[in-house]
Specification:
single chain, 548 residues, alpha/beta, six-stranded mixed beta sheet, 14 helices, 26 strands, 27% helix, binds S-adenosyl-L-homocysteine
């Protein structure tokens, strides 16, 4: 049923001979997010047809148009009335929130027209005016959650069978789409969102970021950042759009962000090591892209076949290309996970059980490298890094990120016999270990004056003696002119030492230039936390025994 509204004035000059249907998407609700054409169309229309709330939202723009207000479920009568009035020669604006072509009135109006045998050439004119749909407006308030392949699913089973909606949720979840759930819940429809969450959890991590936005760009706008397992603990209603992240979506500083592509390499905590432009679309870096066989790239003889031919001559069997063809593999989004493990900071002994666990976890393709940081660096493919780290931690391993981070290299404190300074070592690790720095920073920590693990040869060196701690800064750790760090303080007490080391690291984080080594940083800034840089004399030039 439709109700004819207050204003009944139909200006004669506005009447055109042939009517027109203006199907308008007016955006999320605020006038600033309405297109200029949408505003013009409202102004040039003779009558406005729309759901009550929508008419109220655009009321400030109305002049003397006839208003046909209808309730929520009366879309069909709204469309019929619009067509009827247009056929009488009126310019009729049919308004939808967001975009009229997204769960809006556009399709319905065409259906009514088609039923009447309408043809563009002979029938009333139809103009569809695009608007900002909820997926866009809501997305903008959450951060950048859409970014990659995304889809919208309406949970309203008013016009669509629930079984079909369920299938779509399942397929979208499997295919790792970012999903915008429209019409998630209403007074009577409360079970659908629960069922949707259950299906999504079959394919996605409970920690998947989820954003809930109610009344975007309207007076009662409300934004909630949550995760898949907890989304039902928050208010979801008719005016909410629910955005479910994909396997790569993350939360950062209260924003929900989906990266443009799938990360190939990442490490603990720090994550992002995107490929440089020239590395992109190479098969070894982005194996999922269409390489051999894509039209642009089909050279007369591909690099792979050249390589295979060469290998054939050497009698080395060429490895078949690793195709990601199984559906499950594709959607699992395996990426290379890089991290390091050690049995502890002071403990250097790895048990056979621990070694066995590494072997089982990394499988046949994973690789372990023993590094100069007394760590085993692991590189493996996985779609579930948290499962990997949990298993290793369960076996007593300590996990470390790799890359430009703070690493701490301690001695074994004579098998723990000289372990008085271990608490300070642990404090430093707790406070700065693994943190991001402009360039890899190693802290060497030795438990006695013998310093047999060479603490002063690290960027920051700490030696404990009975009288206290000695601090060294700015060793040049590599090269022919390598030198130990400068002794900047002697006999510090434990608290003082921890405080100073943390301050020095923080200073490097704040003032260090990207990729600047710590010793260069010290030379450039001259003073770090009151410690003044002293020039190290240039080494005496010698003839290199080999090479130059
Ligand atoms: N044509 C509209 C969608 C209409 S279906 C569009 O393109 O946006 C109604 C659903 O849209 C609501 O249940 C809600 O999920 C979503 N929606 C519309 N406007 C919204 C807004 N301002 N804020 C949040 N969600 C909105």
């Amino acid at each position: 049923m439709y109700v004819f509204g207050e204003a009944v004035l139909v200006g004669g000059d506005k009447m055109s001979q042939k009517g027109k249907l203006l199907i308008i998407g007016f955006g999320p609700g605020h006038e600033q997010h309405m297109t200029i054409r949408a505003k013009e169309a409202i102004l040039e229309s003779d009558s406005i047809i729309g759901y009550n709330t929508y008419v109220d939202l655009i009321r400030p723009l109305l002049t003397n148009q006839t208003i046909v207000r209808t309730g929520m479920t009366e879309e069909v009568s709204r469309a019929q009335e619009a067509v009827r009035q247009a056929e009488q020669g009126k310019k009729v604006a049919v308004i939808s929130s967001g975009d009229a072509g997204v769960y809006g009135m556009a399709g319905l109006v065409y259906e009514v027209l088609i039923e009447k045998g309408w043809k563009e050439k002979t029938g009333v004119e139809v103009e569809i005016i695009p608007g900002v749909s909820a997926i866009n407006s809501v997305g903008s308030l959450l951060g950048a959650p859409i970014m990659h392949d995304a889809c919208t699913i309406s949970l309203s089973d008013h016009l669509t069978p629930w079984e079909l909606i369920k299938k779509r949720i399942d397929a979208a979840a499997q295919a790792d789409f970012v999903i915008a759930l429209y019409n998630p819940k209403s007074g009577r429809r409360t079970k659908q969102i629960e069922e949707a969450q259950r299906i999504l959890l079959l394919h996605r991590s409970p920690d998947t970021p989820v954003g809930l936005v109610k009344s975007a760009y309207r007076d009662r706008q409300h934004i909630v950042m949550t995760k898949l397992s907890e989304m039902l603990e928050h208010e979801i209603g008719m005016l909410t759009t629910v955005i479910i992240g994909n396997g790569s979506t993350f939360m950062y500083d209260g924003k929900m962000i989906t990266p443009r592509g799938y990360q190939r390499k990442y490490t603990l905590g720090t994550d992002k090591q995107p490929l440089k432009p020239h590395q992109r679309l190479r098969e070894e870096n982005e194996p999922w892209a269409l390489h051999n066989g894509s039209e642009q790239e089909q050279a007369p003889q591909s690099l792979r076949s050249l390589a295979e031919e060469a290998l054939g001559k050497l009698n080395v069997p060429a490895k078949p290309p690793k195709a990601i063809d199984k559906k499950e593999d594709l959607f699992k989004q395996e990426a290379i996970f890089e991290f390091a493990v050690s049995p502890g900071l002071a403990n250097k002994k790895i048990t056979s059980q621990q070694l066995l666990t590494i072997v089982q976890i990394i499988g046949e393709d994973g690789e372990v490298e023993y590094t100069t940081d007394h760590q085993l660096k692991v590189e493996m493919k996985t779609s579930n890094p948290s499962e990997v780290t949990a298993k290793l931690e369960e076996k007593g391993f300590m996990l470390h990120p790799v890359g430009d981070v703070v690493t701490i290299k301690a001695c074994d404190f004579c098998d723990g016999d000289k372990g008085e300074s271990i608490p300070q070592l642990n404090d430093i690790h707790e406070l700065v270990g693994g943190e991001q720095v402009p360039k890899r920073l190693s802290i060497g920590f030795n438990g006695c004056g013998m310093a047999c693990y060479g603490a002063p040869t690290n960027d920051i060196g700490v030696i404990y003696r009975k009288k206290g701690f000695d601090l060294f800064l700015g060793a040049k750790t590599t090269g022919r002119n390598a030198h130990v760090g400068q002794l900047v303080a002697e006999g510090m007490n434990g608290d003082e030492l921890v405080r100073m080391v943390v301050k020095v690291v923080r200073d490097f984080q704040e003032r260090g230039l990207p990729n600047e080594r710590f010793h260069k940083f010290f030379k450039r800034v001259q003073v770090i936390e009151g410690y003044r840089f002293r020039e190290v004399p240039d080494p005496i030039p010698v003839d290199m025994a080999c090479g130059d």
